[in-house]
Design a protein that fits this description.
It is built from nine helices and no strands. The protein has helices at about 5-30, 55-60, 75-95, 115-135, 140-160, 175-200, 205-220, 225-245, 260-284.
Length: about 280
């Protein structure tokens, strides 16, 4: 068995640290607070010492309680940190030159293309924030969704200009139809959700879902946006039925749909082609 290269540990630790910062954004953004500034306990408001800010480990050492007031620390903090670290690993794995790395090279295995990996690491952070904020507050902040759309737009434009970048789906940008793919996917996905919003008069979906669908279509393109929507609705339906069955929600209760769309997006991003090929093979 080939040894685990230290770069993967570095990437995971980096993800944990970034996840710790994302927790700050998630907690402060809906309140309108400044993102900068020292971290503090949400219960006693006391500033948290640096040695209590180690991602995951501080939560374990403190047994999930504030050192000052002994109030419970939300499980959101370690879960977001672990999720971010795991996603960083998955994204890095997608763009690492794994097969060409000698086993003796224990420090660095190389990056196939730094441009996509940097973009997807950044966009994963945006999606994690959207996931948690929508789950907790039933909103998708414009301060997150619009920068993500702008960054993704320019990412796709650079791909369109074909600066010798290879897309994450394994084909080289070469024809006009392919160039339009992400933009048409974004329009189709957002139009679909816009129709739901208008027909339901915002009872089933909100305007944040329309903007999120546009972003996801821009990220994934066709046909992977279909995979994301399929799994988003599937996961949302399963969760909705579970909440109804256990009496946690009623038919009139609001359930945020953004988290399910984000989850479906990650499924499509990492396994979309595999699932589509499996499905087509099953039909044939």
């Amino acid at each position: 068995m080939a040894p685990i290269k230290p770069v993967f540990l570095i990437i995971f630790i980096l993800g944990l640290c970034v996840g710790s910062f994302l927790n700050v954004v998630i907690c402060r953004l809906p309140k309108g607070e400044r993102i900068s500034g020292r971290s503090y306990c949400p219960h006693c408001k006391k500033v948290i010492a640096w040695y209590d800010l180690m991602p995951v480990f501080s939560f374990i050492l403190l047994q999930g309680k504030c050192r000052s007031c002994h109030q419970k620390i939300s499980w959101q903090y370690p879960l977001v940190e672990i999720a971010t670290g795991s996603l960083f690993l998955l994204i890095f794995n997608e763009f690492s030159i794994l097969n060409s790395c000698p086993a003796s090279n224990l420090f660095w295995c190389g990056v196939q293309n730094p441009f996509p990996i940097c973009y997807f690491l950044l966009i994963a952070c945006f999606l994690i924030i959207i996931f948690v904020v929508d789950l907790k507050h039933y909103i998708i902040p414009d301060r997150i969704i619009f920068p993500a759309i702008i960054i993704t737009f320019f990412y796709q434009v650079f791909r369109i200009l074909n600066l010798e970048f290879v897309s994450d789906f394994g084909f080289r940008i070469s024809d006009f139809k392919t160039l339009l793919n992400p933009f048409l996917s974004a329009i189709l996905a957002s139009t679909f959700f816009l129709a739901i919003v208008l027909m339901s008069r915002e009872r089933w979906m909100g305007w944040g879902d329309v903007k999120l669908a546009f972003l996801l279509g821009l990220i994934l393109g066709w046909p992977n946006i279909l995979t994301a929507l399929f799994f988003g609705f599937l996961l949302g339906g399963i969760m909705g039925m579970g909440l109804l069955a256990f009496g946690k929600k009623s038919l009139k209760s609001e359930v945020p749909f953004g988290p399910f769309l984000v989850a479906g997006t990650f499924v499509a991003l990492f396994w979309g082609d595999l699932l589509i090929n499996w499905y087509l093979g099953f039909l044939i």
